From TrEMBL:
<dbReference type="InterPro" id="IPR003594">
    <property type="entry name" value="HATPase_dom"/>
</dbReference>
<dbReference type="InterPro" id="IPR011712">
    <property type="entry name" value="Sig_transdc_His_kin_sub3_dim/P"/>
</dbReference>
<keyword id="KW-0902">Two-component regulatory system</keyword>
<dbReference type="InterPro" id="IPR003660">
    <property type="entry name" value="HAMP_dom"/>
</dbReference>
<keyword id="KW-0597">Phosphoprotein</keyword>
<keyword id="KW-0418">Kinase</keyword>
<protein>
    <recommendedName>
        <fullName>Sensor protein</fullName>
        <ecNumber>2.7.13.3</ecNumber>
    </recommendedName>
</protein>
<keyword id="KW-0547">Nucleotide-binding</keyword>
<dbReference type="Pfam" id="PF02518">
    <property type="entry name" value="HATPase_c"/>
</dbReference>
<feature type="domain" description="HAMP">
    <location>
        <begin position="196"/>
        <end position="248"/>
    </location>
</feature>
<keyword id="KW-1003">Cell membrane</keyword>
<keyword id="KW-1133">Transmembrane helix</keyword>
<dbReference type="InterPro" id="IPR005467">
    <property type="entry name" value="His_kinase_dom"/>
</dbReference>
<dbReference type="InterPro" id="IPR050482">
    <property type="entry name" value="Sensor_HK_TwoCompSys"/>
</dbReference>
<dbReference type="InterPro" id="IPR016380">
    <property type="entry name" value="Sig_transdc_His_kin_NarX/NarQ"/>
</dbReference>
<keyword id="KW-0472">Membrane</keyword>
<dbReference type="GO" id="GO:0005524">
    <property type="term" value="F:ATP binding"/>
</dbReference>
Length: 624
């Protein structure tokens, strides 16, 4: 909206710049007026000096005319000519504008009267009588008297011009003095205005700006008045208030964010500790208590309950609380339907089921105060902790199931080992007993029973040895050792039986995962072959090697080589029962056992198979 003239004038009057500019304009105008007046008066004074000079010239010319009249040495004609020139020169000087102007400007003044008197005396009394004064002595005397009177008037005129010139000089001095005084006053007023309305407010504004720069928004700039600095102070105060409010708001937001980050950090730390603690103590339900108390401390919820139950149960086997209280009747009666079905009664209670893969392991209950509401982060943390508890209980359940499966698998392995070794040995002994009974019923059967009795002794020794080997094998595996450690310990036990033979192991399959069944069979084949070498080879070195096949990396090759006398042409006659067991074990692993003489001497027992790990990978690739 455009401003009106009065509004613009009012706004200009409020402007400190306008006031300072106006003051400078007045000072400049005063200086210009003073200088112009001085120039004008100086010019007038110069005219007065010239007029004084001309007046003096008139006086000198008057005396020259008188002298020319009184000279008797001049001829009449020469005198007349000289007087004519002097009269003409006097007329010209008398009527010069410099002499006429002051008189004409002030017709009622003494200056005018003197000039008129001199001119009339010259024109009426002196000039007409000059020519005849030389002939009449009476006229000459009268002319001298008139000239003397005119010279007096001229002297008076000179004095008037001099007085006028002095007045001009005084006027110049007065004007200069007044101008200097007014200029000094105006300068004082200007300095006062600058100090009052510019310097002090500007210094305060600078101080406030420095405080704001240091982060101190409590200072107040001067904002009284309507000039630019007052407007700047008002704007600075408004800006300082806005920045202070923004700063306070930012501090509150930073504090809120800090609190939220601390809560998030504590929540993450709690979840991390819960995960670690639950993984380390899966068999101890009481470990949930400290975690539940810490959850209550972080969330600020003092009344938390944790009810845990089995996957197939419907009543809790453990009830943990963070607050000592009298349990309601439904908890005493173990009526958990309301909490488990997430449909609690209207008593300010929130429930978080411990559910994992559609299996319920309990519930986390949060009892609120009347009118209390949970924040979003509290709800998320309670839900996350409930999920962690559910995961822990689920892992514990899975671990128990895995233990059961491992136990069943171990029992199956033991049963198979007993069936493959000891049961067959007992069956063999049973057959030999039946043969012995049949021989004893025959005439002279006692003489024929000796070989059968020897077979029974040999079978019993083999069965006893197999039983010891099985016990040793199972003890090695139940100690939780690796296959390398079990084979090293088994060879060490054989090494302790004899000082004349040295056993060594070349094991190059540390990074391959064998199944328990494969480990038992490999260990038993190694023990049986090494024991045969100890008893029958007659050598001094046995090398056991278990490594990948160079031509087929997915196949594993086991070899037991000695440097003894070598195997007979019919190996079935030597410990045929142990050899049969080894071959049976090799067939169970999908391989074939080979027993042969080594080209460099001794016996080589070798066996090659493909582990279940590689077989399963092939099935996954082919989709079978």
């Amino acid at each position: 909206m455009p401003l009106t003239g009065k509004a613009m004038l009012k706004q200009l009057n409020r402007s400190i710049v306008f006031r300072i500019g106006l003051m400078m304009f007045v000072i400049s105008l005063l200086a210009v007026v003073s200088m112009a007046s001085s120039v004008f008066i100086s010019d007038s004074a110069e005219s007065d000096a010239y007029a004084i000079n001309l007046s003096g010239t008139l006086r000198m010319q008057s005396y020259q005319i008188v002298i020319s009249l009184m000279r008797e040495d001049l001829a009449a004609d020469e005198r007349q000519q000289r007087l004519a020139k002097q009269i003409q020169l006097f007329d010209q000087t008398l009527h010069l504008p410099t002499l006429q102007r002051p008189a004409m400007a002030k017709q009622a003044s003494e200056h005018f009267q003197l000039y008129e008197s001199i001119e009339s005396r010259w024109q009426a009394r002196i000039k007409p009588n000059i020519s005849s004064a030389t002939l009449q002595p009476d006229l000459l005397l009268n002319l001298l008297n008139e000239t003397d009177a005119m010279v007096k008037d001229i002297d008076r005129l000179v004095q008037l011009h001099q007085h006028h010139a002095e007045q001009n000089v005084a006027t110049i001095r007065l004007i200069q003095g007044l101008a200097l005084l007014l200029t000094a006053l105006l300068m004082i007023v200007a300095m006062f205005i600058i100090s009052r309305h510019i310097k002090q407010p500007l210094a305060q504004l600078t101080q406030i700006a420095r405080q704001i720069g240091r982060g101190d928004f409590t200072g107040r700039a001067p904002d009284h008045g309507h000039d630019e600095l007052a407007l700047l102070g008002h704007t600075l105060n408004h800006m300082s208030d806005a920045i202070s409010r923004s700063h306070s708001l930012m501090e509150r937001k930073v504090q809120e964010k800090t609190i939220r980050l601390q809560q998030s950090n504590q929540s993450m730390e709690l979840l991390y500790n819960i995960s670690n603690s639950l993984q380390e103590s899966l068999n101890h339900p009481s470990e949930f208590g400290p975690l539940l108390n810490r959850l209550a401390k972080i969330t600020g919820l003092s009344d938390l309950d944790l009810c845990m139950m089995t996957a197939s149960g419907n009543t809790p086997y453990e009830h943990l609380m963070t607050k000592d209280k009298i349990l309601p009747s439904r908890c005493i009666n173990k009526d958990c339907n309301g909490c488990m079905n997430a449909n609690p009664p209207t008593d300010n209670k929130l429930t978080f089921p411990l559910t994992r893969a559609s299996t319920n392991y309990g519930v986390l209950v949060c009892q609120l105060q009347p009118g209390q509401k949970l924040e979003t982060w509290q709800m998320r943390l309670l839900k996350s902790v409930a999920d962690q508890f559910a995961v822990s209980l689920s892992l514990r359940d899975q671990q128990e199931q895995s233990r059961r499966l491992v136990l069943m698998h171990e029992r199956t392995v033991i049963a198979r080992e007993l069936h493959d070794s000891l049961a067959q040995a007992l069956s063999y002994l049973k057959i030999q007993v039946a043969r012995l009974e049949k021989l004893l019923k025959q005439p002279n059967g006692a003489d024929k029973a000796a070989p059968v009795i020897d077979e029974l002794k040999t079978g019993l020794s083999s069965a006893y040895r197999e039983l010891r080997e099985l016990l040793t094998t199972f003890r090695l595996k139940m100690d939780g050792q690796s296959l390398r450690a079990a084979m090293e310990q088994s060879l060490l036990q054989l090494q302790e039986r004899s000082d004349s033979i040295r056993f060594s192991l070349e094991f190059d399959v540390d990074n391959l995962p064998f199944s328990p069944n494969e480990e038992i069979h490999l260990l038993q084949i190694t023990r049986e072959a090494s024991q045969n070498a100890l008893h029958h080879s007659g050598g001094n070195e046995v090398v056991v090697s278990l490594q990948r096949d160079a031509s087929t990396p997915s196949h594993i090759k086991l070899s037991i080589r000695d440097n003894g006398v070598g195997i007979e042409n019919d190996p079935g006659k030597l410990n045929h029962y142990g050899l049969a067991i080894m071959r049976e074990r090799s067939r169970n692993l999908g391989g074939e056992l080979n027993v042969q003489r080594h080209p460099k001497g001794g016996t080589l027992v070798s066996f090659e198979f493909e582990p279940e790990y590689y077989a399963q990978r092939k099935d996954e690739v082919t989709g079978t």
